[in-house]
Amino acid sequence: MRNRYVDLLRAVAIVRVVTYHTLGFAWLTVAFPAMGLMFALGGSLMAASLDRGGDGLGLKAIGRRMRRIVVPFWVLGAFAVVLMSLMGGLEHSWRLVLWFLPLDDPPTSEKGGVWFSQIWYVRSYLWFIILSPLMLWLFRKAPVPTVLVPFGVLVALWETGHGTGGMVRDFFMYAPMWMLGFAHHDGTLQRISRKVLWPACLVMGGIGLAILYSHPGPRGYDMNDAPIADALWSTAFLLVMLHAAPAALSLGAAEPAVEAINRRALTIYLWHEAVITAVRLAAVAAGVSLLGPYGGLLQLVLVFALVTLVVLALGWVEDLAARRRPRLVPLPSRAPAGRLDDRAQPVPV
């Protein structure tokens, strides 16, 4: 059965990601830190899968989760390799196998890289899946140190000039969020008193915002340019949002849309950057301006319309990956709300 609160958070996160990448509003990264949220929801689902896995090593749970990620990714990978080969500049080497299993960033061409800049998330997500049995064991043995250590490593990476990006930086930046998902699954967060939680969140969030606004990046006050501020602010945000999770939630008339987004979250995430790039290239070719409020609105409408078409054309691959009956329109039969559904697969931001 589905947890409607989790579904709502994931749907808002996906819409926020697409909107941010389309319009580039830095304030969105502060108002709703979607990436940290998606890693946290992924950690919660992974903990649930491991607890139900039936084998001590968690191999079955790892296999199920990886299958749900890589099968839709193969469709994107086939498109990416063909497109970049036609554009020219793609190096044909053994690293092309990373478009089959992206344990590192797959190779891209200079022109094609902008179409697929979102694939870092898939790489990070797969590593969290693979390492989750060990991470969950460590978390349950020593929850506070296990969450704090990645923060320390992230600060060390930043201070030594290695914290601006890459696989290692991404892992230590989002590992605390993934393990907050463990805490959400175990009910640990709900047992924390508000008298302890709220002051801690105010301190962490305040420090994060102070770092951001005292050291603006190339895009202004954008959390993506300030990893330490992002980690602190996202953690505070997640603690509040997950601690406040209701036992049950009715979405009313919004439920079909929220459920559809959840059923196709991975497809939306994988393809939205390519859609945005295509819309911008088409606008340049047609001599249409996408600047200003009206241009931005036009761009946003076109992007969401084309993403919807991609979802209708390719979203059924997610059903195959989850071993469900393929559906053109992702609206399955109703199920009672309340518990977490292992069928839904979270993604990015």
Automatic annotation (TrEMBL):
Residues spanning the membrane: 25-48, 69-90, 119-139, 196-213, 233-254, 266-291, 297-317
The Acyltransferase domain, residue ranges: 3-315
Keywords, sorted A to Z: Acyltransferase, Membrane, Transferase, Transmembrane, Transmembrane helix
Organism domain of life: Bacteria
Pfam families in alphabetical order: Acyl_transf_3
Cited InterPro entries: Acyl_transf_3_dom
GO MF entry, a single one: acyltransferase activity, transferring groups other than amino-acyl groups
Record protein name field: Acyltransferase
Organism this protein belongs to: Dactylosporangium aurantiacum
